[in-house]
Predict the 3D structure of the following.
Amino acid sequence: MKVNEHKSSAGIDWAKDEHAVCVVEEAGRKILSRRFAHDEAGITELCGSLVEMGVERVAIERPEGVLVERVLEAGIVVLAIHPNQLKAARPRFRASGTRAKSDSFDAFCLAELARTDKHRFRELSPDSDETKALRALTRSREDLVGTRVALANRLRAELEAFWPGAAILFKEIDSSISLAFLARYPSPKDASKLGEKRLLGFLSGQGYPGRKGAGELLERLRSKAPCGRAGEAEMEARRATVLALVVALKTLVEQIRLFEERISKAVRAHPDGEVFLSLFVGHNTTLTAACLVGEIGDRRERYPTNEAMAADCGMSPVAIESGKRKVAGFRRACDKRLRKAVATLAESTRHHNPWAKDVYRRARERGCDHAHAIRILGRAWVRVIFRMWRDGEPYDPARHGGLRRLQSAEGLSQGV
Protein backbone atom coordinates (compact mmCIF):
# COMPACT_ATOMS: atom_id res chain seq x y z
CA MET A 1 0.00 0.00 0.00
CA LYS A 2 1.28 3.46 -0.89
CA VAL A 3 2.13 5.61 2.13
CA ASN A 4 1.55 8.75 0.06
CA GLU A 5 -1.68 8.91 -1.95
CA HIS A 6 -0.72 12.23 -3.60
CA LYS A 7 1.26 12.43 -6.80
CA SER A 8 4.96 12.86 -6.23
CA SER A 9 8.15 13.21 -8.25
CA ALA A 10 11.69 12.07 -7.60
CA GLY A 11 15.22 12.94 -8.61
CA ILE A 12 18.16 10.54 -8.55
CA ASP A 13 21.75 11.75 -8.60
CA TRP A 14 23.48 8.66 -9.97
CA ALA A 15 26.89 7.59 -8.64
CA LYS A 16 29.09 4.53 -8.93
CA ASP A 17 28.71 3.41 -5.31
CA GLU A 18 25.51 5.01 -4.03
CA HIS A 19 22.69 7.20 -5.33
CA ALA A 20 21.27 10.32 -3.72
CA VAL A 21 17.46 10.30 -3.97
CA CYS A 22 14.97 13.08 -3.31
CA VAL A 23 11.17 12.80 -3.46
CA VAL A 24 8.86 15.84 -3.46
CA GLU A 25 5.08 16.04 -3.28
CA GLU A 26 3.01 17.75 -5.95
CA ALA A 27 2.98 20.92 -3.86
CA GLY A 28 6.79 20.89 -3.61
CA ARG A 29 7.25 19.60 -0.04
CA LYS A 30 10.27 17.32 0.33
CA ILE A 31 9.22 13.96 1.76
CA LEU A 32 12.39 11.92 1.26
CA SER A 33 16.09 12.64 1.01
CA ARG A 34 18.48 9.74 1.46
CA ARG A 35 21.07 7.55 -0.23
CA PHE A 36 20.78 4.03 -1.57
CA ALA A 37 23.68 1.70 -2.27
CA HIS A 38 24.33 0.64 -5.85
CA ASP A 39 23.86 -3.06 -5.22
CA GLU A 40 20.99 -5.50 -5.54
CA ALA A 41 19.58 -4.78 -2.09
CA GLY A 42 19.96 -1.02 -2.47
CA ILE A 43 18.32 -0.80 -5.90
CA THR A 44 15.48 -3.10 -4.80
CA GLU A 45 14.86 -0.90 -1.75
CA LEU A 46 15.09 2.27 -3.85
CA CYS A 47 12.49 1.09 -6.37
CA GLY A 48 10.25 -0.21 -3.60
CA SER A 49 10.40 3.14 -1.81
CA LEU A 50 9.50 5.04 -4.99
CA VAL A 51 6.47 2.81 -5.56
CA GLU A 52 5.33 3.07 -1.94
CA MET A 53 5.57 6.87 -2.02
CA GLY A 54 3.45 7.13 -5.16
CA VAL A 55 6.23 8.48 -7.36
CA GLU A 56 4.93 8.98 -10.89
CA ARG A 57 8.13 10.14 -12.55
CA VAL A 58 11.86 10.16 -11.87
CA ALA A 59 14.43 12.55 -13.33
CA ILE A 60 17.96 11.24 -13.78
CA GLU A 61 21.01 12.29 -15.79
CA ARG A 62 21.72 8.80 -17.16
CA PRO A 63 19.54 7.62 -20.06
CA GLU A 64 20.41 3.93 -19.57
CA GLY A 65 21.84 1.40 -17.18
CA VAL A 66 20.72 -1.10 -14.56
CA LEU A 67 19.11 1.51 -12.31
CA VAL A 68 17.11 3.06 -15.15
CA GLU A 69 15.91 -0.36 -16.30
CA ARG A 70 14.79 -1.30 -12.79
CA VAL A 71 12.90 1.97 -12.31
CA LEU A 72 11.14 1.47 -15.65
CA GLU A 73 10.27 -2.10 -14.68
CA ALA A 74 8.62 -0.69 -11.55
CA GLY A 75 6.18 1.18 -13.80
CA ILE A 76 7.63 4.64 -13.15
CA VAL A 77 8.18 7.20 -15.89
CA VAL A 78 11.86 8.14 -16.29
CA LEU A 79 12.88 11.56 -17.61
CA ALA A 80 16.33 11.89 -19.17
CA ILE A 81 18.02 15.13 -18.07
CA HIS A 82 21.19 16.25 -19.81
CA PRO A 83 23.95 17.35 -17.39
CA ASN A 84 23.98 20.80 -19.03
CA GLN A 85 20.26 21.16 -18.31
CA LEU A 86 20.84 20.35 -14.65
CA LYS A 87 23.76 22.77 -14.50
CA ALA A 88 21.60 25.56 -15.92
CA ALA A 89 18.79 24.79 -13.46
CA ARG A 90 20.86 24.85 -10.25
CA PRO A 91 20.73 28.65 -9.74
CA ARG A 92 16.94 28.47 -9.93
CA PHE A 93 16.79 26.35 -6.78
CA ARG A 94 19.86 27.69 -5.00
CA ALA A 95 19.72 30.30 -2.25
CA SER A 96 20.79 33.73 -3.50
CA GLY A 97 24.53 34.36 -3.31
CA THR A 98 25.53 30.76 -2.68
CA ARG A 99 27.35 28.33 -4.95
CA ALA A 100 26.53 25.21 -2.97
CA LYS A 101 26.60 21.92 -4.84
CA SER A 102 26.12 18.46 -3.42
CA ASP A 103 24.68 15.14 -4.48
CA SER A 104 21.58 15.66 -2.33
CA PHE A 105 21.08 19.15 -3.79
CA ASP A 106 21.37 17.79 -7.32
CA ALA A 107 18.80 15.11 -6.47
CA PHE A 108 16.48 17.85 -5.19
CA CYS A 109 16.97 19.90 -8.39
CA LEU A 110 16.17 16.84 -10.48
CA ALA A 111 13.05 16.12 -8.43
CA GLU A 112 11.86 19.71 -8.89
CA LEU A 113 12.49 19.53 -12.63
CA ALA A 114 10.43 16.34 -12.76
CA ARG A 115 7.66 18.08 -10.78
CA THR A 116 7.48 21.43 -12.58
CA ASP A 117 9.08 20.91 -15.99
CA LYS A 118 8.18 17.36 -16.93
CA HIS A 119 6.78 18.52 -20.28
CA ARG A 120 10.24 19.79 -21.31
CA PHE A 121 12.06 16.48 -21.08
CA ARG A 122 11.96 13.24 -23.01
CA GLU A 123 10.38 10.23 -21.38
CA LEU A 124 12.49 7.11 -21.63
CA SER A 125 10.83 3.96 -22.88
CA PRO A 126 12.56 0.58 -22.96
CA ASP A 127 13.51 -0.76 -26.38
CA SER A 128 13.06 -4.36 -27.45
CA ASP A 129 15.65 -6.94 -26.48
CA GLU A 130 16.84 -7.14 -30.11
CA THR A 131 17.47 -3.40 -30.21
CA LYS A 132 19.30 -3.40 -26.89
CA ALA A 133 21.49 -6.26 -28.10
CA LEU A 134 22.33 -4.45 -31.34
CA ARG A 135 23.12 -1.24 -29.47
CA ALA A 136 25.38 -3.13 -27.06
CA LEU A 137 27.23 -4.74 -29.99
CA THR A 138 27.81 -1.49 -31.91
CA ARG A 139 28.93 0.41 -28.82
CA SER A 140 31.26 -2.37 -27.71
CA ARG A 141 32.79 -2.52 -31.17
CA GLU A 142 33.32 1.24 -31.11
CA ASP A 143 35.09 0.95 -27.76
CA LEU A 144 37.28 -1.87 -29.08
CA VAL A 145 38.19 0.21 -32.13
CA GLY A 146 39.18 3.07 -29.83
CA THR A 147 41.42 0.70 -27.87
CA ARG A 148 42.93 -0.61 -31.11
CA VAL A 149 43.74 2.92 -32.27
CA ALA A 150 45.37 3.72 -28.92
CA LEU A 151 47.50 0.56 -29.01
CA ALA A 152 48.45 1.18 -32.65
CA ASN A 153 49.61 4.69 -31.74
CA ARG A 154 51.57 3.24 -28.84
CA LEU A 155 53.21 0.70 -31.14
CA ARG A 156 54.10 3.39 -33.67
CA ALA A 157 55.64 5.56 -30.96
CA GLU A 158 57.68 2.61 -29.69
CA LEU A 159 59.03 1.82 -33.15
CA GLU A 160 59.84 5.46 -33.89
CA ALA A 161 61.99 5.50 -30.77
CA PHE A 162 64.40 2.78 -31.97
CA TRP A 163 63.34 1.43 -35.40
CA PRO A 164 61.38 4.09 -37.35
CA GLY A 165 61.64 2.25 -40.66
CA ALA A 166 59.34 -0.49 -39.39
CA ALA A 167 56.74 2.13 -38.42
CA ILE A 168 56.37 3.31 -42.04
CA LEU A 169 56.92 0.00 -43.81
CA PHE A 170 53.21 -0.58 -44.45
CA LYS A 171 50.37 1.92 -44.75
CA GLU A 172 48.52 0.81 -41.60
CA ILE A 173 50.60 -0.27 -38.64
CA ASP A 174 47.77 -2.44 -37.29
CA SER A 175 47.09 -4.21 -40.61
CA SER A 176 47.49 -7.98 -40.71
CA ILE A 177 50.64 -7.80 -42.85
CA SER A 178 52.27 -5.22 -40.58
CA LEU A 179 51.51 -7.18 -37.41
CA ALA A 180 52.77 -10.40 -39.02
CA PHE A 181 56.02 -8.67 -40.00
CA LEU A 182 56.58 -7.23 -36.52
CA ALA A 183 55.80 -10.57 -34.90
CA ARG A 184 58.62 -12.13 -36.94
CA TYR A 185 60.98 -9.13 -36.95
CA PRO A 186 60.31 -7.11 -33.76
CA SER A 187 63.71 -5.35 -33.78
CA PRO A 188 66.51 -4.34 -36.19
CA LYS A 189 68.59 -7.22 -34.84
CA ASP A 190 65.92 -9.73 -35.87
CA ALA A 191 65.84 -8.22 -39.37
CA SER A 192 69.61 -7.88 -39.77
CA LYS A 193 69.78 -10.76 -42.28
CA LEU A 194 66.55 -9.86 -44.04
CA GLY A 195 67.23 -9.55 -47.76
CA GLU A 196 65.05 -8.95 -50.76
CA LYS A 197 64.59 -12.66 -51.48
CA ARG A 198 63.64 -13.50 -47.89
CA LEU A 199 61.26 -10.53 -47.69
CA LEU A 200 59.63 -11.60 -50.95
CA GLY A 201 59.08 -15.07 -49.50
CA PHE A 202 57.51 -13.56 -46.38
CA LEU A 203 55.18 -11.34 -48.43
CA SER A 204 54.12 -14.26 -50.62
CA GLY A 205 53.43 -16.39 -47.57
CA GLN A 206 51.19 -13.67 -46.16
CA GLY A 207 49.34 -13.18 -49.44
CA TYR A 208 50.43 -9.53 -49.57
CA PRO A 209 48.47 -7.78 -52.37
CA GLY A 210 50.33 -4.47 -52.14
CA ARG A 211 51.80 -2.64 -55.11
CA LYS A 212 55.18 -2.11 -53.47
CA GLY A 213 57.83 -4.64 -54.37
CA ALA A 214 60.18 -6.32 -51.90
CA GLY A 215 63.09 -4.11 -52.97
CA GLU A 216 61.15 -0.89 -52.43
CA LEU A 217 59.88 -2.06 -49.04
CA LEU A 218 63.39 -3.04 -47.98
CA GLU A 219 64.68 0.40 -48.94
CA ARG A 220 61.87 2.01 -46.96
CA LEU A 221 62.72 -0.15 -43.95
CA ARG A 222 66.43 0.73 -43.90
CA SER A 223 66.92 4.02 -45.72
CA LYS A 224 63.82 6.19 -45.37
CA ALA A 225 64.14 6.71 -41.62
CA PRO A 226 67.26 6.83 -39.43
CA CYS A 227 67.63 4.04 -36.87
CA GLY A 228 68.27 4.76 -33.23
CA ARG A 229 71.38 3.71 -31.34
CA ALA A 230 69.80 1.69 -28.55
CA GLY A 231 72.08 -0.47 -26.44
CA GLU A 232 71.65 -4.21 -26.16
CA ALA A 233 69.58 -4.09 -22.95
CA GLU A 234 67.35 -1.28 -24.22
CA MET A 235 66.93 -3.04 -27.56
CA GLU A 236 65.77 -6.21 -25.82
CA ALA A 237 63.33 -4.24 -23.64
CA ARG A 238 61.83 -2.44 -26.64
CA ARG A 239 61.66 -5.71 -28.56
CA ALA A 240 59.61 -7.24 -25.74
CA THR A 241 57.30 -4.20 -25.77
CA VAL A 242 56.74 -4.49 -29.52
CA LEU A 243 55.91 -8.19 -29.23
CA ALA A 244 53.46 -7.54 -26.39
CA LEU A 245 51.69 -4.80 -28.36
CA VAL A 246 51.55 -6.98 -31.47
CA VAL A 247 49.92 -9.83 -29.53
CA ALA A 248 47.37 -7.43 -28.02
CA LEU A 249 46.60 -5.85 -31.39
CA LYS A 250 46.19 -9.20 -33.13
CA THR A 251 43.66 -10.23 -30.50
CA LEU A 252 41.79 -6.94 -30.78
CA VAL A 253 41.68 -7.02 -34.57
CA GLU A 254 40.25 -10.54 -34.51
CA GLN A 255 37.65 -9.66 -31.87
CA ILE A 256 36.58 -6.59 -33.83
CA ARG A 257 36.15 -8.79 -36.90
CA LEU A 258 33.96 -11.20 -34.92
CA PHE A 259 31.91 -8.30 -33.55
CA GLU A 260 31.36 -7.00 -37.07
CA GLU A 261 30.12 -10.41 -38.19
CA ARG A 262 27.66 -10.53 -35.30
CA ILE A 263 26.51 -6.98 -35.98
CA SER A 264 25.93 -7.78 -39.65
CA LYS A 265 23.76 -10.78 -38.76
CA ALA A 266 21.92 -8.93 -35.98
CA VAL A 267 20.98 -5.89 -38.07
CA ARG A 268 19.64 -8.08 -40.88
CA ALA A 269 17.54 -10.06 -38.40
CA HIS A 270 16.18 -6.91 -36.71
CA PRO A 271 12.62 -5.84 -37.66
CA ASP A 272 13.91 -2.37 -38.61
CA GLY A 273 17.13 -3.63 -40.18
CA GLU A 274 16.03 -3.52 -43.81
CA VAL A 275 14.52 -0.07 -43.25
CA PHE A 276 17.93 1.41 -42.49
CA LEU A 277 20.00 -0.87 -44.73
CA SER A 278 17.99 0.42 -47.70
CA LEU A 279 19.65 3.83 -47.28
CA PHE A 280 23.06 2.47 -48.31
CA VAL A 281 24.45 0.96 -51.50
CA GLY A 282 27.73 -0.53 -50.27
CA HIS A 283 28.05 -3.92 -48.57
CA ASN A 284 30.36 -2.44 -45.94
CA THR A 285 27.72 -0.04 -44.59
CA THR A 286 26.01 -2.46 -42.21
CA LEU A 287 27.86 -0.94 -39.26
CA THR A 288 26.37 2.51 -39.83
CA ALA A 289 22.91 1.06 -40.42
CA ALA A 290 23.23 -1.00 -37.24
CA CYS A 291 24.25 2.08 -35.27
CA LEU A 292 21.21 3.97 -36.57
CA VAL A 293 18.90 1.12 -35.56
CA GLY A 294 20.44 0.78 -32.12
CA GLU A 295 20.67 4.47 -31.25
CA ILE A 296 17.27 5.55 -32.63
CA GLY A 297 15.57 2.52 -31.10
CA ASP A 298 12.23 0.96 -31.94
CA ARG A 299 9.87 2.91 -29.68
CA ARG A 300 7.97 5.19 -32.06
CA GLU A 301 6.78 7.44 -29.24
CA ARG A 302 10.39 8.43 -28.49
CA TYR A 303 10.44 10.97 -31.31
CA PRO A 304 7.04 12.60 -31.90
CA THR A 305 8.44 14.78 -34.70
CA ASN A 306 11.37 14.79 -37.09
CA GLU A 307 12.57 17.95 -35.32
CA ALA A 308 12.96 15.98 -32.08
CA MET A 309 14.92 13.29 -33.90
CA ALA A 310 17.10 15.89 -35.63
CA ALA A 311 17.96 17.49 -32.28
CA ASP A 312 18.96 14.12 -30.82
CA CYS A 313 21.08 13.48 -33.93
CA GLY A 314 22.84 16.83 -33.48
CA MET A 315 21.80 17.84 -37.01
CA SER A 316 19.71 20.89 -36.11
CA PRO A 317 21.32 24.11 -34.87
CA VAL A 318 20.66 25.82 -31.55
CA ALA A 319 18.96 29.19 -32.06
CA ILE A 320 20.41 32.05 -30.02
CA GLU A 321 18.46 35.32 -30.10
CA SER A 322 19.07 38.56 -28.22
CA GLY A 323 17.49 41.77 -29.46
CA LYS A 324 18.31 42.07 -33.14
CA ARG A 325 21.05 39.46 -32.88
CA LYS A 326 20.13 36.01 -34.18
CA VAL A 327 22.71 33.23 -34.31
CA ALA A 328 22.43 29.54 -35.17
CA GLY A 329 24.91 27.71 -32.94
CA PHE A 330 26.38 24.22 -33.10
CA ARG A 331 24.35 21.67 -31.12
CA ARG A 332 26.69 19.96 -28.66
CA ALA A 333 24.13 18.23 -26.44
CA CYS A 334 23.08 15.21 -28.50
CA ASP A 335 23.70 11.51 -29.03
CA LYS A 336 27.28 11.64 -30.33
CA ARG A 337 27.13 8.13 -31.80
CA LEU A 338 23.91 8.95 -33.61
CA ARG A 339 25.39 12.19 -34.96
CA LYS A 340 28.40 10.30 -36.30
CA ALA A 341 26.15 7.70 -37.98
CA VAL A 342 23.96 10.33 -39.68
CA ALA A 343 27.07 12.25 -40.77
CA THR A 344 28.47 9.02 -42.24
CA LEU A 345 25.22 8.50 -44.13
CA ALA A 346 25.38 12.07 -45.47
CA GLU A 347 29.02 11.71 -46.50
CA SER A 348 28.31 8.41 -48.25
CA THR A 349 25.19 9.47 -50.14
CA ARG A 350 26.53 12.78 -51.42
CA HIS A 351 28.65 10.77 -53.85
CA HIS A 352 25.93 8.59 -55.41
CA ASN A 353 22.49 10.02 -54.59
CA PRO A 354 21.58 12.93 -56.95
CA TRP A 355 19.37 14.62 -54.37
CA ALA A 356 21.99 14.36 -51.61
CA LYS A 357 24.66 15.58 -54.01
CA ASP A 358 22.48 18.61 -54.87
CA VAL A 359 21.75 19.47 -51.22
CA TYR A 360 25.45 19.31 -50.38
CA ARG A 361 26.47 21.32 -53.46
CA ARG A 362 24.00 24.13 -52.74
CA ALA A 363 25.18 24.31 -49.12
CA ARG A 364 28.79 24.70 -50.24
CA GLU A 365 27.79 27.35 -52.78
CA ARG A 366 26.20 29.34 -49.93
CA GLY A 367 29.60 29.44 -48.25
CA CYS A 368 29.23 26.56 -45.78
CA ASP A 369 32.35 24.55 -45.03
CA HIS A 370 32.36 20.77 -45.48
CA ALA A 371 31.31 19.92 -41.92
CA HIS A 372 28.44 22.42 -41.98
CA ALA A 373 27.26 21.19 -45.38
CA ILE A 374 27.28 17.60 -44.10
CA ARG A 375 25.09 18.65 -41.15
CA ILE A 376 22.67 20.38 -43.52
CA LEU A 377 22.48 17.23 -45.64
CA GLY A 378 22.18 15.13 -42.48
CA ARG A 379 19.25 17.27 -41.34
CA ALA A 380 17.58 16.70 -44.70
CA TRP A 381 18.14 12.95 -44.39
CA VAL A 382 16.61 12.93 -40.89
CA ARG A 383 13.27 14.00 -42.40
CA VAL A 384 13.43 10.96 -44.66
CA ILE A 385 14.65 8.65 -41.88
CA PHE A 386 11.87 9.78 -39.55
CA ARG A 387 9.19 8.95 -42.10
CA MET A 388 10.77 5.57 -42.89
CA TRP A 389 11.19 4.74 -39.20
CA ARG A 390 7.66 5.81 -38.30
CA ASP A 391 6.07 3.83 -41.16
CA GLY A 392 8.48 0.89 -40.97
CA GLU A 393 9.15 1.02 -44.71
CA PRO A 394 12.50 0.91 -46.57
CA TYR A 395 13.78 3.84 -48.58
CA ASP A 396 12.03 4.11 -51.94
CA PRO A 397 13.55 6.65 -54.37
CA ALA A 398 10.25 6.75 -56.26
CA ARG A 399 8.52 8.15 -53.15
CA HIS A 400 11.27 10.61 -52.24
CA GLY A 401 9.73 13.97 -53.12
CA GLY A 402 12.99 15.92 -53.14
CA LEU A 403 14.67 13.40 -55.45
CA ARG A 404 11.68 13.28 -57.81
CA ARG A 405 11.51 17.07 -58.05
CA LEU A 406 15.22 17.25 -58.81
CA GLN A 407 14.93 14.56 -61.48
CA SER A 408 11.94 16.36 -63.03
CA ALA A 409 13.84 19.64 -63.12
CA GLU A 410 16.86 17.96 -64.71
CA GLY A 411 14.59 16.29 -67.27
CA LEU A 412 13.00 19.61 -68.19
CA SER A 413 16.38 21.31 -68.53
CA GLN A 414 17.65 18.50 -70.75
CA GLY A 415 14.48 18.73 -72.84
CA VAL A 416 15.06 22.44 -73.38
Observations:
- The chain has three domains: 8-126, 132-266, 275-415.
- The beta strands are 8-13, 18-25, 30-37, 55-60, 77-80, 122-124, 318-322, 325-329.
- The CA atoms of residues 90 and 176 lie 52 Å apart.
- The two ends are 78 Å apart (CA to CA).
